[in-house]
Design brief:
The complex is a heterodimer of chains A (643) and B (80). Chain A is an alpha/beta fold. Helix content of chain A is 60%, strand content 8%. Chain B has 80 residues and is α+β, with helices and mostly antiparallel strands. Chain B is globular and about 30 Å long. The C terminus of chain B is likely disordered. Classes of the chains: A alpha/beta (643), B alpha+beta (80).
Chain lengths: 643, 80
């Protein structure tokens, strides 16, 4: 498609601006929720695009990553820079650029604009937060601002929808034009001294001419909130409280829809079973596909809730305060303050956590954060902890009133955190060695989170998760099912009975694998049945519970942990000694804390790092760590006289 | 005096930024250029980073980075 043709048919408009300038809110206002997210070819930088109706036709609007200048430091910024410069490497060639400028923060926002207008692609400035700025008593002379920059300036209010039509008209009118560098800027850049300083001198002159500032400070309100929220004591307490609330929501409130989903998938399985003729197809659909994919999709409510919280915290401006509060602690380990959020998210699920590392500029810092994210005890480990505690520590208390189960559970979470700190510490001093990256982060004024932005964000993340469940996880579920299903064995037991299922599993490829690895896992206190369950749970941790249920002939319902718990307690070895002891269960929990048993995480790390090297490294180091941890726990425990 | 030595509540005018370094260049792109007034708002709970205010916005940076900025403290002839 040649250039003239593309402009007539459907021009491509890029949306650029500083982070926090109101870019995303404007994007959502212009495109509604009709947008799609994809990656730029070859890199993991996300590309959000949507249709924007301008004039009689419509344009393709592309949201670029937020950036402060065209001198890129992160991968996100590099892409944005290439697009804005119209350079040959650019994956898209926009016909016009809408540059978003925050009126309340004019000078720093205009710095990027002075760089963009040096290139040929026509620019229209969308001035956001004008209402707020004028409420504070400042006066902006739009005409002289536009004249000084040499491009149209249109005030917009994304929330009320004002200025949107005018912005469309302005964009239509500049299509096909070319920018000229304003005389004042050209003179400054030709003068002595730094290019950066010259630009700021030009901007300073422009702003003095176009804006009458009121002495009232826009930040006063935010600063007053921050006198508590970033206070040395209260700030940390509030942060702790917020985390507690998020955890409460994820682990407690989310269980209601999760139980419903689980019941729904159970009913779906039963329905499919009754419709399909008995045989392999029915087994594949019910035990392989529905059980496998359903087992992952039940986590959807947690993911949605987590992203509702993250989006609200981000959109309100709180997230950067959290990074501010914790940067010192994080930098001691060698990580950036921004790594805090992805790591917290990983307590729900490492997948959204790893996706959230995109905000970390430095590649090595980001990789280190990705590598330790799966050590945070995610919700898929919860069923394992619950089963082990119910089986071997149920009803016991410490000091007479604290439940021993709760102490052990807390211990497992702490173990994951400590392991993550140690691993990050080592990684940042060895393979991912790099100088501590600078920490320069804007603390934007607090804002009421926009419902539309939060909704768009949550829909996007949930969509990505569901799509993965439909592809990678589906494939893995089928493979696992086949491993446990073949080869078929004939038993004397009644077909379909639990004894038959157990015999089938022992004879299957998965069962043989379990026997094969028994010598390796024996020092950890595990027998072949645990081996089978371990192998199965390498695809997804929570599979352990359902696999054990099959192996111990306790109905397929993984929810009946009571029955399974007593079956585990009663299981005897050939020599009459119990298979499971409290020590075995601790050893198994330790293994689960440290091991990389989640194919979806491996798949997402592959996608986010664009190589197989890092996901493989992750699997290897975590498996070794898990083995070592369980070995030390079991053998050490025995030396100390525990059973 | 270096920006990193300014106590919370103090302010000054930027006199020089080493824009040859990566940190200095990034800071100057963010508006930390000679002539700009900077006020130190507070330090984070563990003493670092530090929150500063310039050009009508708030920025957090580590003391280590603040050390590349030279300021003339408590002067009154700058712009805010």
């Amino acid at each position: 498609m040649d250039e003239a043709n593309s402009q007539k048919a459907s021009p491509v408009i890029a949306l650029a601006g500083n982070p926090n300038a109101g870019k995303t809110t404007l994007f959502n206002a212009l495109t509604g929720l009709r947008h799609k997210v994809a990656n730029y070819p070859g890199v993991t930088v996300e590309r959000r695009s949507g249709r924007w109706g301008i004039g009689e036709g419509s344009a393709e609007l592309i949201d670029l990553p937020g950036l402060y200048s065209l001198d890129a430091t992160s991968m996100d910024e590099e892409i944005a820079r290439d697009v804005l410069r119209g350079s040959a490497e650019s994956p898209v060639r926009p016909d016009a650029i809408v540059a978003v400028v925050d009126a309340t923060n004019l000078e720093r926002n205009l710095y990027l604009i002075t760089q963009i207008i040096e290139h040929e692609t026509p620019v229209v400035v969308a001035l956001t937060m004008m209402d707020l700025f004028e409420e504070q008593g400042h006066i902006v002379d739009l005409a002289s601002l536009a004249a000084g920059l040499g491009v149209p300036v249109v005030p917009v209010d994304s929330r009320k929808g004002t200025g949107i039509a005018e912005l469309g008209e302005a964009v239509s009118s500049v299509l096909g034009n070319k920018n000229g560098v304003p005389n004042g800027l050209a003179a400054e850049l030709a003068g002595e001294g730094s290019n950066v300083f010259g630009r700021y001198r030009f901007i300073s002159g422009l702003v003095q001419m176009a804006v009458k500032h009121n002495d009232l400070d826009a930040h006063r309100f935010s600063d007053r909130i921050d006198s508590i929220l970033t206070h040395k004591v209260w700030g940390l307490l509030v942060l702790f409280g917020i985390l507690l609330l998020v955890f409460q929501a994820i682990f407690s409130w989310a269980t209601v829809p999760m139980d419903l989903l689980e019941a729904g998938f159970g009913a779906l399985g039963d329905g499919a079973r009754s419709i399909l003729p008995e045989g392999m197809l029915a087994d594949l659909v019910v035990d392989g596909i529905i059980a496998g994919v359903g087992g992952i999709l039940v986590f959807l409510p947690q993911i949605i809730l987590l992203f509702v919280f993250i989006s609200i915290l981000e959109d309100s401006g709180y997230m950067s305060r959290a990074a501010f509060l914790l940067d010192r602690l994080m930098s001691r380990i060698g990580l950036h303050g921004k790594a805090f959020l992805p790591l917290i998210s990983s307590f729900a699920c490492a997948i959204p956590g790893i996706m959230a590392t995109r905000t970390i500029e430095d590649r090595r810092d980001r990789l280190a954060t990705i590598m330790i994210a799966p050590l945070m005890s995610c919700s898929a480990r919860l069923p394992v902890y619950v089963l082990m505690i119910a089986a071997f520590f149920g009803g016991q208390t410490v000091f007479g009133f604290v439940s021993l189960g709760a102490v052990i559970m807390l211990g497992m979470y702490l173990l994951g955190i400590v392991a993550a700190i140690v691993v990050a510490f080592i990684l940042k001093r060895t393979v991912l060695k790099s100088p501590t990256p600078p920490f320069m982060m804007e603390l934007p004024p607090y804002r009421m989170p926009s419902v539309r932005t939060v909704l768009a964000n949550v829909l996007e993340r949930a969509g990505l998760f569901v799509r993965r469940a439909g592809t990678v996880i589906l494939a893995i579920s089928i493979i696992l099912w086949a491993l446990a299903y073949f080869p078929r064995s004939d038993t004397a037991a009644e077909p379909g009975s639990e004894t038959a299922a157990s015999a089938q599993l022992e004879n299957s490829f998965a069962g043989r694998l379990g026997h094969a690895i028994e010598p390796v896992i024996e020092p950890l206190g595990y027998d072949w049945k645990i081996g089978v369950a371990l192998i199965a749970s390498f695809a997804a941790r929570e599979v352990l519970v359902s696999t054990l249920s099959i192996l111990y002939n306790v109905g397929g319902d993984a929810e009946e942990t009571g029955g399974l718990a007593s079956a585990l307690r009663d299981a005897k070895r050939a020599d009459g000694l119990p298979v499971w002891t409290p020590l075995t269960s601790i050893s198994l929990m330790v293994f689960f804390v440290l091991a990389m048993q989640c194919m979806s995480t491996v798949a997402i790390v592959r996608r986010e790092t664009n190589s197989w090297r890092w996901p493989l490294f992750m699997v290897v180091y975590m498996t070794l760590l898990a083995y070592l941890g369980a070995f030390v726990t079991y053998q050490g425990g025995r030396l100390l006289g525990f059973t | 005096m270096r920006l990193s030595d300014l106590p919370a509540g103090g302010s000054g005018i930027v006199t020089a930024v080493d824009d040859g370094s990566r940190v200095g260049r990034r800071l100057s792109e963010l508006g930390v250029v000679p002539g700009v007034k900077i006020a130190v708002i507070k330090h984070a709970p563990f003493g670092d980073p530090v929150e500063i205010r310039l050009l009508r916005y708030n920025l957090a940076l580590r003391k280590e980075e603040a050390a590349v900025v030279q300021i003339d403290p408590e002067s009154t002839n700058g712009r805010s």
